[in-house]
């Protein structure tokens, strides 16, 4: 009996089938207690395949009716060291086996549409990078620094030159899934962007019916890979040919077709996508990263700022952040309880920019992102957002005594709710904490002193973290109560407090 590892890919192919186009047939996979219906996908003339990702150990069997014949088979699902799918849990993420997952992503939109040499260089770079998620497009991309013509396209063309959505090009899809598998070997999640507006080939102008066929094919072919995420769009509101109703339909299509429940989001241009039952987390584009708290409160889902700007030096305003500002934005997002995605856009005459085509990284931020990731991974507990603002005012407490006793608070509460919340979000501390740890990032503040109030009971270790120099320096090994810290008076400083014994942190 064939053996497939837990969360691995079982595949069966069928040749000589009379049908010659999508959608094909279905197979039913069962074990002692579960049953799943899996669609096949067309993989060339007379050839269909089914893929299934077992999420329970033990013996599985399948049955399928093909050209009037009943076919069946079985396999044994054995244990695996793989963690399984990433799931959204509370403010954060974890693998199916309960292991914590901290997304430290990067963006390489069109890296799978390049030469084999360049793609292999991208994988080699990712192998030694801190990044465990890559935002990447299924369709090729056309915009400045994205002018090369791909060798492969996802579909064959009709006689009139339009794309034939019933005739996928197997070579394109085999190449894409090979790269998804390569990422899986590296422990990297493939955040697949299914649709986008940057297009000179006509993929952004497919009809809604064609889009649905395409999405169903994606799910049938790719959902058995445990490291796949679905991003319905990059900048959905810039795709002029699609309505919000179309996007809702697409989200429902993917959700219903995906039996495994992969993470699903929609990335925005200007207009944030509304919350839907199938959105597992919020994918945000914004340089104003201090609003993470507002986005979390609005959705009550994990927030990933997938586009906060790019470290680089190109002519576009979004693509010339300093390395320090890239690091600062990522620290700000993380210490407000969110997650942030890196990107890099340094000008090259050959137009090989990491953000578009991959290759090699040139910036100074990745090693500092690695420092932050290692710091968080050294903390065994999940850290959550501090539930207070710098003024200790609850904006929803209309009866607070602060309104009577504090003219500042009274004036603030007189503002319209959206203005008040926006103002207070600017002054939320960059602080995440648990029962035993507290991490407070001071951002661009240049403090030389800081008053720290610790419980009188218990002892605490205090470390000074320099986000740029990538250092951890012990300030106090065992203290409690009110402490006045002496700080270096520079940007990019954080304070890590660790409880040694006694009561928890406030």
Write up what this structure looks like.
Helix content is 23%, strand content 30%. It has 506 residues and is of the alpha/beta class. The chain folds into 4 domains: 3-78, Immunoglobulin-like (Sandwich), CATH 2.60.40.10; 103-377, TIM Barrel (Alpha-Beta Barrel), CATH 3.20.20; 389-427, no CATH class; 428-506, Immunoglobulin-like (Sandwich). The strands form 9 sheets. It has a 6-stranded antiparallel beta sheet, with helices on one face. A 5-stranded mixed beta sheet has the order 1-8-7-3-4, with no helix packed on it. The mean pLDDT is 93.
Short characterization:
By secondary structure, the protein is α/β, with parallel strands linked by helices. The protein has eleven helices and 31 strands. The chain has four domains: 3-78, Immunoglobulin-like (Sandwich), CATH 2.60.40; 103-377, Glycosidases (TIM Barrel); 389-427, no CATH class; 428-506, Immunoglobulin-like (Sandwich).
Write the layout of secondary structure elements.
Layout: E1 3-5, E2 10-15, E3 26-30, E4 35-39, E5 41-42, E6 47-52, E7 58-66, E8 69-78, E9 86-89, E10 92-95, E11 100-101, E12 105-107, H1 116-127, E13 133-137, E14 155-157, E15 163-168, H2 170-186, E16 189-195, H3 208-222, E17 228-233, H4 244-257, E18 264-265, E19 282-285, H5 292-299, E20 303-307, E21 311-312, H6 323-334, E22 339-340, E23 344-345, H7 354-357, H8 365-377, E24 384-385, H9 402-405, H10 407-413, H11 417-426, E25 430-433, E26 437-441, E27 449-453, E28 459-466, E29 471-479, E30 482-486, E31 493-501
């Amino acid at each position: 009996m064939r053996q497939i590892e837990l969360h691995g890919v079982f595949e069966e192919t069928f040749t000589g089938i009379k049908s010659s186009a999508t959608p094909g047939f279905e197979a039913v996979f069962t074990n002692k207690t579960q049953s799943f219906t899996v669609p096949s996908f067309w993989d060339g003339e007379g050839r269909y395949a089914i893929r299934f990702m077992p999420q329970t150990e033990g013996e599985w069997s399948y049955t399928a009716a093909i050209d009037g014949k009943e076919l069946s088979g079985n396999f044994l699902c054995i244990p695996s060291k793989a963690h399984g799918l990433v799931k959204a849990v509370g403010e954060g993420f974890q693998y199916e086996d309960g292991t914590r997952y901290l997304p430290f992503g990067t963006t390489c939109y069109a890296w799978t549409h390049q030469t084999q040499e360049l793609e292999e260089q991208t994988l080699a770079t990712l192998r030694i990078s801190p990044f465990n998620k890559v935002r990447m497009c299924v369709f090729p991309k056309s915009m400045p620094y994205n002018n090369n013509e791909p060798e492969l396209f996802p579909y064959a063309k009709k006689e009139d030159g339009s794309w034939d959505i019933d005739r996928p090009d197997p070579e394109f899809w085999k190449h894409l899934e090979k790269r998804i598998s390569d990422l899986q070997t590296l422990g990297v999640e493939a955040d697949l962007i299914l649709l986008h507006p940057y297009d000179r080939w006509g993929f952004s102008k497919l009809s809604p019916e064609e889009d649905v066929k395409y999405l169903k094919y994606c799910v049938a072919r790719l959902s058995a890979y445990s490291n796949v995420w679905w991003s319905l769009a990059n900048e959905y509101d810039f795709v002029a040919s699609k309505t919000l109703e179309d996007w809702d339909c697409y989200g429902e299509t993917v959700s219903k077709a995906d039996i495994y429940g992969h993470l699903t989001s929609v990335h925005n241009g200007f207009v944030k996508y509304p919350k839907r039952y199938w959105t597992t987390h919020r994918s945000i584009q914004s340089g104003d990263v201090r609003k993470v708290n507002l986005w979390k409160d609005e959705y009550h889902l994990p927030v990933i700022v997938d586009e906060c700007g790019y470290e680089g030096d190109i002519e576009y305003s979004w693509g010339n952040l300093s390395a320090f500002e890239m690091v600062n934005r990522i620290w700000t997002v993380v210490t407000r309880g969110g997650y942030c995605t890196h990107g890099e856009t340094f000008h090259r005459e050959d137009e090989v920019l990491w953000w578009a085509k991959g290759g090699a990284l040139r910036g100074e931020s990745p090693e500092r992102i690695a420092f932050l990731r290692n710091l968080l991974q050294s903390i065994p507990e999940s850290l959550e957002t501090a539930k207070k603002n710098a003024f200790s005012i609850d904006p929803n407490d209309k009866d607070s005594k602060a309104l009577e006793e504090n003219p500042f608070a009274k004036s603030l509460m007189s503002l319209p709710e959206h203005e008040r919340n926006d103002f207070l979000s600017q002054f939320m501390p960059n602080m995440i904490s648990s029962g035993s740890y507290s991490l407070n990032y001071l951002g661009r503040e240049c403090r030389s002193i800081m008053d720290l109030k610790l419980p009188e009971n218990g002892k605490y270790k205090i470390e000074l973290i320099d986000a740029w120099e990538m250092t951890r320096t012990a300030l106090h090994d065992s203290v409690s109560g009110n402490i006045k810290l002496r700080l270096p008076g520079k940007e990019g400083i954080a304070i890590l407090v660790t409880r040694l014994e006694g009561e928890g942190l406030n």
